[in-house]
Amino acid sequence: MFTDIDKFYLKMALEEAELALQENTYPVGAILVDDQFKVIAKGRNGVHTNNDATAHAEIEAIRNAGETIFDAKIHNRSFTLYSSLEPCPMCTGGILFAKIQRVVWLLNDDLGFGGYQKMKDAAIFEKKFDRIEMIAEPDEELKNRQLELMHQWEKSSNHVSHLRKEVSLVLPSGGEIQ
Ligand SMILES: [Zn+2]
C-alpha cells in the first residue's frame, strides 16, 4: 500500500538525488525509515564524489544506519528503504543482507543497472524476496522529476559519454576505449 507518508519520504529521497547531481555524480538518493516512520539514515550517490564505484545511494543509507540495522534484524522491525531509482543488483544484495522489509522507488531502471525487478523475476533468493514488499513507480509527478534529473545527468562532465569523449580526444589513434 502506498500512502502520503511514503510520498513524503520519496520527496526526501529526491532531494538527496538533487544534491548528488549538484555534486556532479549520479542523481540517486535514498532514505531509510523505521517502522515508526522515523528517518534512520539518508544516502546519496557518491561514485564520483568519493571516486568509489560502490558508493550507491542505497548502500550509503544502509551503511549510515550503522548498528540500527542489526537491532532491526534482531527485533524483526520493518524498515522501509525509499530510493529515487530502482536499486541495482549490488544494492538489491544490500537490501537482502540488511533484511529491509519494504522497498519503494520512484523510477524503474530497465535500460540501466536496475536489478531488483530482474532478480526478483529470476526467482533467485525467492523466499527472501517474498518477505519484502516492493512498490515501483507509485507517483507519476515525482517519477518525472527523477527522469528530469537523469536527463540533466547526461549533460554532466562526469557522465561516461563525456568522459569517453575526453579520452578519445587524447588517444593518438582517436580510438575509443571499450
Ligand atoms: Zn546500486
TrEMBL record:
InterPro entries documented for this protein: APOBEC/CMP_deaminase_Zn-bd, CMP_dCMP_dom, Cytidine_deaminase-like
GO biological process assignments: tRNA wobble adenosine to inosine editing
Gene Ontology MF terms: tRNA-specific adenosine-34 deaminase activity; zinc ion binding
UniProtKB keywords: Metal-binding, Zinc
Domain CMP/dCMP-type deaminase span(s) in chain numbering: 4-116
PANTHER family cross-referenced by the UniProt entry: CYTOSINE DEAMINASE FAMILY MEMBER, TRNA-SPECIFIC ADENOSINE DEAMINASE
Protein's recorded name: tRNA-specific adenosine deaminase
Species assigned in the record: Sporosarcina luteola
Top-level taxonomy: Bacteria, Bacillati, Bacillota, Bacilli, Bacillales
